[in-house]
Each structure stands twice: as structure tokens, then as C-alpha cells.
Amino acid sequence: RQPRGKQRPRVVGKFAVSNLERTVVPAGATGSHITKFPDLLQWLADHAHHRCKADVDFPNGAIPSRALSLARRVVETRRNGIWCIPSSDYKKIARETDPRYEKGTDQLHQHTQLLQSWGLLHHHFRHLHLKRTIILDVPWVLKVLATLSCCIPIDSGNDLLTSYDRNEGLSQYSLSSPSVVQFGESLPFFVSDVREKDPKGLMSLGILMMDTLQVLLMKLTQEKSYEAGDIEPVLELLESYDMIIRGSRLRPTWGSYFPVEDVPTVEDLAEGLPPGRVHDEEDEEDELPESFYLMPACFQAQAPVALTLHVPPLLFGPSYKFQLNMVPTHFFPRFVSRVSRYADQLYLGPATLSNPDGESFTEAGYGSNTAISGALWCSCVWIISSSESRALVRMVNNSMYITFHDHAGDQVFHEGLRDVVHCLVAESPGAQCQELILCRPSHGSTEEVWVEKTANLNSIERTLEKEQQALRTARGAPPPMEDRMADGPIPLIRPQDQPFDAAEVLEKLRTDCVVSDDVLGRVQSALELIEMGREIEDRDVGVDLEGKGMDFLVDALAFSKLV
Fold first, then answer.
1. Looking at residue 228, what is its pLDDT?
2. What residues have CB less than 8 Å from 358, skipping those under 6 apart?
3. What is the DSSP string of 259-303?
4. For 175-178, which contacts have Cβ atoms below 8 Å and span 24 or more sequence positions?
5. In 83-148, at which residue ranges do the beta strands (DSSP E only) sit?
6. How many angstroms separate the Cα of 130 from the Cα of each of 57, 86, 336, 398?
7. Helix (H, G, I), strand (E, B) or coil at 423
8. What is the pLDDT of residue 421?
9. Within 10 Å of residue 343's Cβ, how many Cβ atoms?
10. Residue 285 has what pLDDT?
11. SS3 call for 451
């Protein structure tokens, strides 16, 4: 108790917020008699009692017996060593528990949320992938997520385990740091073993080598009686939670397949095939295992302004802007992880791959002993969907910009990227997001303006509609997305046959940025390849060459600096 009366907390204002309608309740409704904290606590208790009596799902707070029976079945299933089940199996268990669950999924969803509030299970029904899974062993899954969260740097640039020197670009483990001393025994992994496997501290930079992951997850896999080194189920879980990316999705820098001291010529770029995994369903059985994973939440580097300034004007495709009132936690890292499940490759910065044992890169994968180094971008990604479709995505403060570079007019690719953003916003209740498209006011106009497509992607109506479909199984194709502009503004899509002057682009680059001669030489080779691709009559060959040229241009500009 505070002995000084003036320093005791006081009630200085009264208001309430409805989480259901997202509205502020008038001050009079909170009780004009509230002057002290005991009055406030009594009002909250009375309000909770009133809401309990008026609860539509559970009148007077009575819990249906079938919900208790379902809870017992969930506990029995978890005791058998099963930590997650598909939603279809969960609905089957519910129907076996009580036939009344066959009438629909609405009541089952209500009862599922009740069991979730008890901590018996977890159903992330707003998540695009996790809505098909019911987590039964919630504490174990939370420990898995907490283990990876220990690797994510905090605001100071240091994570729980390492100290990062921004000047030297190195991370070093500190077993005597206050956090390790305080939490070392309770951590779900052995810090000393992790340091031995990852002496350079790559983990804090978002690079997770497989041998490091096996040590990191050893305790957790032993709890589930997995065989030594069998961490694939855990990695699939982390992928579903949008925390990690398969290493085979990474597009490395030019130095991984051209000698560092050489500047590749146009012929080298035209003939050279970058290393990576060929995503062919027929060859899935022949794919090599992943040698490393990436965690975008740990990326710390910024993309050069030269790239974000000079690349968008060269792209022909629509440009979208998603403006958020507040950015959900790890919004862009989750976007990158989600997109990696569908894209062919992602360029995330000048990352260099090497094989210390002299193994050569193959089209089947990077090899089991691949080493990776380099700073990866935390707010920019170059997405390669196919030889004809690409996109540049940037996060600037509270806005995400998507600019497409598409020769084929691939609407599936366009709508797919937009849908990823829509889903991530929907998974963050309370966040408001406005979608805009870059347009010109009329034909012949050179002015560029952002025109609103959707006022709020996460309105209360959309949120309630999504909750009503929590446990429903999708049948057939989803309804087409409304994508029509009102009469007036015209979406800005640059023509594919627009004049391209490589010398002009190069001169602007010299003016805006400080670039070394070798970087300038790579940029010039990439621009010449783009120009060659646009002039070739065989459009299939030309599109392929221009796409490679754009990839190498992005890679070359990644090494530029500010003026």
C-alpha cells in the first residue's frame, strides 16, 4: 500500500470498449458511481456476471455435457502421443462423441473455442494453413515456437543467446550473458551445444544450418520419441507457422556460380543457369534433403535505395499498395515465409553459397554440405514465380508495395500474392488495411496516383464471416475476387514494347549512387541482356533472356551504396 495519498493510483476517466463490435461504450454505461478501484472491480464483476447470464452460446454459464465429453476424448488422444490431428479427424471424433455435432460446425466451433480457452487444444481458424490442423499438445508446440523465438534479435540488435556487432557483421555467443545465466537451465536446448555447431553465430542472422537445427530441437524431439536427427515433423510445423523458409527456395548472388574476381559477360548471363532446386512434381522423389533453412524474422539488412529507386520503372505490371494502420508482429517475415511455399525462388539479398568440400551445385539441390554467408534483407524481396513472372515487394514503414514484372499476364500469380496479404491481415484481428492500385487519371495522362480498391480488408463484417467458416471444409473453387475499377482511373501497366535505353539507366545510376567499377560492370551486362531480350524476335527466348537480365540487375544493385 502506498503510504502517500497523492501517489496512489486514481480513476481519472471512465470508458469501455466492446471487443465484439469494436466500438467505444459511452462513459455513462460504465457506471457514474465509479470513483475508486474497488468500485471498478465490483463493476467488472457485475458486468461479467451479466454477460455470463446473457451468453448466447452458453446460457447462464452452463457447459453442455457433450463439450465435456469432447474434452475427455481430446485428453485421451493426447495421452496416446498424438500432438496434432487434421480438422477432418477432429470433426470425426466429435461426431463419434455426440451425434448432434453432425448437424453443423457452428456449435462445434463454439465448443472448440471453449476447450481452447481451457488450454486443452488450439485451433488457429484464421490461419490459411493451420486452420486445417487441431493442436492437441499445446505446451509442447509453444516450446517449439519459443525455441525458435530465442534466435530472433530484439530491438537492441541482440537476441537471447548472442551479441551482434553491426560494424563487424559478426555474432558471438555469450554463455555468461545475463539472459543465459538467468534462463539457461529452463531453455529447451543446450546453449553450449548450439555454440559448438554454430561458432559464427549464423543463427542470429536468420541462417539455420541442419546440424544446428538438430541440436536446437534435440530436447523437443526426444519428448515425442522421434529418432535421433528426425526433425522433419517439427520443421513442417514451423513452416506452417510462417517462421522458416526452405533453403532451396533461396536465389543466391552471382558469386555463387561465377568467380568472385570476374565480371560476367552477357554471354555468361545468357547461358548460365543459377543453382537451385527444380520444382517438378515428377522429380520430387529425387530431390536432395535441405541443407539449411532461413528465418526471415532475424534478417537485419536493408535493401539499397538504388534497387528500390531504379528497378520499379523497368517493370511492366500492376503496382499495389497495402497501407496498414498498425503493422502486425513480424508481418513482412511472415509474408516472405508464406510466399516461399509457392514461389520458385526468392532473392533476399547478396547471399553467397559455397561448398567447402568441392561439391558442385546441381539442379536437384545445393548439396548436403552447402555453406551460406551474407546479409539478408528484412524489408525487401524479389520473387521469381516462373521464367515469365516476377515481382518486387517492399515494406516501407506501414505500407507494403508490390510491383509485378509479368510477360504472360499471369492472374494466378497476381491474385496469389494479393491473397497472401489479405490472409495475413485477416489473421490479425483489429488491424486495418487499405488496398490501393497505381493508376493514371485518364488515357494519355502522365500523372500517377494511388486509387483505393478496398477501404478495409479487415472490416468487422469480413472478420465475422471468416469465423463462421472456421471448421467448414472448402468444396469446389473459391468465389472469384472482385477486381474491377470504377470508370475513370486506369491501372498503370507499362507496355512491354516501351523503348529501353540502357545508357540512360546507367547514367541515372551513376548520378544517384556510389558504385564500384565491378558493380557497374555487372549492372551494364545485366542491362545489355535485358536490351537483347527485348529485341529478339523469338519472344519465348527473349522473355527468358530478359527475365535473367532482371534477376542479375537486382543482384548487381544489391551491392550498391548511397551517395
1. 62
2. none
3. -TTPPP-HHHHHH---------GGGGGGPPPPSEEE-GGG--B--
4. none
5. 84-86, 133-135
6. 24, 9, 17, 26
7. helix
8. 93
9. 23
10. 44
11. strand
Rounded to whole angstroms, the maximal C-alpha distance in the chain is 87
Residue-wise pLDDT for 89-133, tens only, equals 999 999 999 988 888 778 888 899 899 999 999 998 888 888 899
Q: Which of 319, 336, 347 is nearest to 548 (CA)?
A: 347
Q: What cell does 254 get?
A: 552471382
Residue type, 9: P
Tell me the angle at which helices 87-97 and 106-118 cross, rounded to the nearest 10 degrees: 100
Sheet holding 292-294, edge to edge: 207-209, 292-294, 245-246
The Cα-based distances of 11 to 6, 14, 29, 32, 35 in angstroms read: 13, 8, 16, 12, 6
User: Are 34 and 43 spatial neighbours (Cβ–Cβ below 8 Å)?
Assistant: yes
Question: What residues are paired with 345 via a beta bridge?
Answer: 384
What gap in Å lies between CA 241 and CA 337, rounded to an integer? 9
Give the DSSP per-residue string, 198-246.
Answer: -TT-GGGGTEEEHHHHHHHTHHHHHHTTPPTT--HHHHHHHHHTT--EE
Of 407, 361, 357, the C-alpha closest to 548 is 407
Distance between CA 108 and CA 102 in Å, rounded? 9
Query: Strand 513-514 to strand 561-562: parallel, antiparallel, or no bridges (unpaired)?
Result: antiparallel
pLDDT in tens, 136-173: 999 999 988 988 887 777 654 445 555 444 444 444 44
The model's pTM is 0.80
Closest CA to 291 of 356, 199, 204: 356
Q: What is the dihedral of CA 248, 400, 330, 22, to 10 degrees?
A: -140
* pLDDT beneath 50, residues of the chain: 156-158, 163-177, 181, 259-261, 273-286, 358-365, 474-486, 562-563
Which pLDDT score, from 0 to 100, does residue 263 have?
Answer: 54
- Separation of alpha carbons 184 and 378, rounded Å: 29
Sequence-ordered list of residues with C-beta below 8 angstroms from that of 128, at least 6 positions apart, any chain:
338, 423, 427
Helix axes 502-512 and 517-535, enclosed angle (nearest 10): 150
Per-residue model confidence (pLDDT) at position 72: 94
Quote the CA–CA distance of 118 and 114 in Å, as a whole number: 7
pLDDT of residue 175: 42
Alpha carbons within 13 angstroms on the beta-carbon side of residue 405 total 26
CA dist., res. 212 & res. 196, Å (int): 9
Which residues does residue 513 pair with via DSSP β-bridges, in sequence order? 562
CB 263 within 8 A of CB 522: yes
The alpha carbon dihedral of 217, 223, 228, 232 has a sign of negative
What per-residue confidence (pLDDT) applies to 20? 57
Tell me how far apart the alpha carbons of residues 562 and 513 are, in angstroms, rounded to a whole number.
5
Question: Which three cell numbers, joined as nine digits, stand for 270?
Answer: 545468357
Nine-digit cell string for 328: 502486425
Return the number of other C-beta atoms located less than 10 Å from residue 241's C-beta.
Answer: 18
